[in-house]
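User: hey, got a sec? need Alcohol dehydrogenase-like C-terminal domain-containing protein folded
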Amino acid sequence: MCIRDRYLVIGQYTDAGDTLINPHQIVHRQLDVVGSWAFTGAHLVEYVKLLPALTARFDLRSLVTAYPLEEHAAALSAVADGSVMKAVLAS
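Assistant: Yep! Here you go:
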């Protein structure tokens, strides 16, 4: 039996130009790669279903950096320069 990895990325992205990928990694690891311009409620349901497996496999908390609401400019700057993965504003 072959186990395939699947990845679901929720979000919208800006076209910042081409991105380098290694197609060998997609084929060798038998990845399913699906593109979607936007998502529906059904996609959100699938994402929520995947959360237990994702949290068991990855330390998702380490990807999030919280900022006080008044530091929104610093949060946006950190995302723009790539020093944080996901900035969350908290009141």
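Quick note: The radius of gyration is 16 Å. Let me know if you need anything else on Alcohol dehydrogenase-like C-terminal domain-containing protein.
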